[in-house]
Automatic annotation (TrEMBL):
Its main location: cytoplasm. This is Glutamate--tRNA ligase. CDD domains: GluRS_core. It catalyses: tRNA(Glu) + L-glutamate + ATP = L-glutamyl-tRNA(Glu) + AMP + diphosphate. The lineage of its organism: Bacteria, Pseudomonadati, Rhodothermota, Rhodothermia, Rhodothermales. Its EC number is 6.1.1.17. It is an enzyme of class 6 (ligase). Keywords: Aminoacyl-tRNA synthetase, ATP-binding, Cytoplasm, Ligase, Nucleotide-binding, Protein biosynthesis. Belongs to the class-I aminoacyl-tRNA synthetase family. Glutamate--tRNA ligase type 1 subfamily. Catalyzes the attachment of glutamate to tRNA(Glu) in a two-step reaction: glutamate is first activated by ATP to form Glu-AMP and then transferred to the acceptor end of tRNA(Glu). Monomer.
Length: 489
């Protein structure tokens, strides 16, 4: 575990919406930076221009802001080691590529897509065993290669991976790891359009930006030997590295877009936002999806996570995603909020459902106070129209069949009369009036309370009956009781 301030980075590619796994990677980097008093850097890796999505960078920024992961340096606020978009840093990559070529640690190659496809179909890799038989500077000679480059012939730059070596490094999660270079191909470092690949740009930028610790997904583990060879060739010290375990589907296997879609699990951070999940709950859930605090605690604020986090408690095994567990976290964090804050977060969904200005602030806060223990998401308040000044338009058919008896219309009408005549309209007075009515009519209490709830709310379950009536108000309660008596008969 670092005992000094670190410099970490989150380096997404703007090729689509921010993935929930990407947010976990950003979170772990953020937590380590905050715990050590270091810096959390956002770097946009946009060198793949064929897959570039102009809106994706904004989605990344929005997702990080929603989760509360404030960056210290990045494309919006700048910093001492910018620019923070790789498309604006090309001169650095060109310089590194020239240096690698001059040293003999890289070479230019002219192979056509057809030749590369034939190589793959033959089960071979582009490496020390095949490079001498292909169309490159190693096979054709440096002078011919230089002449073809100067003539403008399309080419790439490849890393010259040495044969018969073992590349060893220490991973902060997995311990000592080693790869035989016979299993490492001659990776393309510069593409035919002159842009660097991830591997070269990643190494150059991590060094130039002073990154001390790299925390990223397990899928990049097999790329580390190439990066170590690049660091060695360029004479630079590699950062500490930690590769996070995969996020697994509830049914086992990697949580891919396809498996997530089949199980109804949102994939992008935007989907979680739009579904009404609380950011604190998503962050808490993701933090424990691969890391544990070493005790039984489950509920954390972002600051508490930063205090407790340590890389050495990240597990090696894949972490299984559970939407049910996320729902539980969401409920816990929601109930920790005050009614006014719940109402604020519910407002967009309420306005979308009932129209802007269709629900007053007082009614919304009162509904939040009443239902905070019963709702899973703040947006669920939009479904409680009966608390937001909207009379029920329909009545639950199953509830009507079960709860609406032959005498229900008469009893709820009588209850309306008594509530209208009462001086007070409180939880105590509305309950007393109902109990007295049941006694006077010689029926059980349930004979009145169940049809009355159905009449006032349209459903058969909810918060406390008399608390609900007070939030609904006397006038609306009486009106709804009489309407149900008329409509349901």
């Amino acid at each position: 575990m670092p005992d000094a301030p670190v410099r970490v980075r989150f380096a997404p590619s703007p090729t689509g919406l921010l993935h929930i796994g990407g947010l976990r990677t950003a979170l772990y980097n953020y937590l380590l930076a905050r715990q050590t008093g270091g810096a959390f850097v956002l770097r946009i890796e946009d060198t793949d221009r064929s897959r570039f999505d102009a809106d994706a960078e904004q989605d990344i920024l929005d997702g990080l802001a929603w989760a509360g992961l404030t960056t210290d340096e990045g494309p919006t606020q700048g910093g001492a080691v910018g620019p923070y978009r790789q498309s604006e840093r090309r001169a650095r990559y060109d310089e590194a590529a020239r240096r690698l070529l001059d040293q003999g640690d890289a070479y230019v190659a002219f192979d056509t897509p057809e030749a590369l496809e034939a190589l793959r179909e033959g089960g071979a890799a582009y490496d020390a065993t095949t490079r001498g038989d292909l169309d490159n500077a190693v096979a054709r000679g440096e002078e011919e290669a230089r002449r073809r480059v100067e003539a403008g012939e399309p080419h790439v730059v490849r890393l010259k991976v040495p044969a018969g070596e073992t590349v060893a490094f220490r991973d902060e999660v997995r311990g000592d790891v080693s790869f035989d270079t016979s299993d490492v191909d001659d990776q393309v470092l510069v593409k035919s359009d002159g842009m660097p690949t991830y591997h070269l740009a990643n190494v150059v930028d991590d060094h130039a930006m002073g990154i001390t610790d790299v925390i990223r997904g397990e899928e990049w583990l097999s790329s580390v030997p190439k990066h170590v060879l690049l660091y060695r060739a360029l004479g630079w010290e590699p950062p500490r590295m930690a590769h996070l375990p995969l996020i697994l589907s509830p049914n086992g296997g990697k949580l891919s877009k396809r498996s997530a879609g089949r199980l109804g699990i949102p994939v992008s951070v935007r989907e979680y936002r739009e579904a009404g999940y609380e950011p604190e709950a998503v962050v808490n859930f993701l933090a424990l999806l691969g890391w544990n605090p070493g005790d039984d605690r489950e509920l954390f604020s972002l600051d508490e996570l930063a205090e407790a986090f340590s890389v050495d408690r990240i597990g090696r095994s894949g972490a299984q995603f559970s939407l049910d567990k996320l729902e539980w976290f969401n409920g816990q964090h929601l109930r920790a909020l005050g009614p006014a804050e719940i109402a604020r977060r519910a407002r967009p969904a309420v306005d979308a459902r009932w129209g802007e200005g269709g629900v007053g602030e007082g009614a919304l806060v009162a509904a939040a106070a009443l239902l905070r223990e019963r709702i899973a998401k703040a947006a669920d308040l939009a479904d409680a129209g009966y608390l937001l000044g909207h009379d029920p338009e329909t009545y639950d058919p199953a509830g009507v069949k079960k709860r609406w008896k032959d005498d229900s219309a008469r009893l709820v009408a009588l209850y309306a009369d008594r509530l209208e005549a009462e001086d007070a309209f409180t939880e105590e007075s509305t309950e007393a009036a109902m109990r007295q009515l049941a006694e006077d009519e010689g029926v059980g209490f349930g004979r009145v309370v169940h049809p009355a709830r159905l009449a006032v709310t349209g459903v058969t379950a909810g918060a406390g009956m008399f608390e609900t009536l007070v939030v609904v108000g006397r006038e609306a309660t009486v009106r709804r009781l009489r309407r149900a008596a008329e409509v349901l008969g």
